[in-house]
Fold this sequence. Notes:
The chain is an alpha+beta fold. The protein is built from 4 helices and 7 strands. It has a 4-stranded antiparallel β-sheet, covered by helices on one side. The longest helix has 11 residues, at 72-82.
Amino acid sequence: MILTRLASPAGQDLGVRLLAPEEACDFEYWAARLVHVELLRNAVAVALYRLPLLAVPAGMGRRGGRMDMGFAGYAELAARELHGRPGFHGVAAVGTDVVWGEPVPQDLPPDARRQFFGLHAQPQNRPLTAYQWQVRHA
C-alpha cells in the first residue's frame, strides 16, 4: 500500500492510497466489461477516503483512461502515484481528472468511445480467468 498526503486549503489532511486491484469497489464492473481482462494485472485501486476505484492501464487495444477524482489536489496526488506504472504512460492531472494514454478525441460517438476505452458494449457473462479465480479465492 502506498499513501501520499496533502493538506487541503481548509487544513484537512488528504490522502490517496494505492491498493491491489481486487480491493476496488468496481473491480467486478471492469472485469465484466473489459475486452482484454488481462489488463487487470497492471490495474491498481486508487483509494480516496474509504472508496477505492479501479485505474485500468492502457494497452491491448485500450488507448487511454481517466478517473474523476473530485478535487484537483487528489488528481495531482493520484497522477504522481500512477507515474511510471506499466500502462499509465503520459499520466497527468487535468483539473479534477487523472488521464493517461492517448487523449480522447472530441465528439466520439458512443460506440467509438467504448472501443477507445477497450470495453464491450454489454457486460460479459464469461467464466472466470485464472487471475480472477485467484483473486476471489485468496
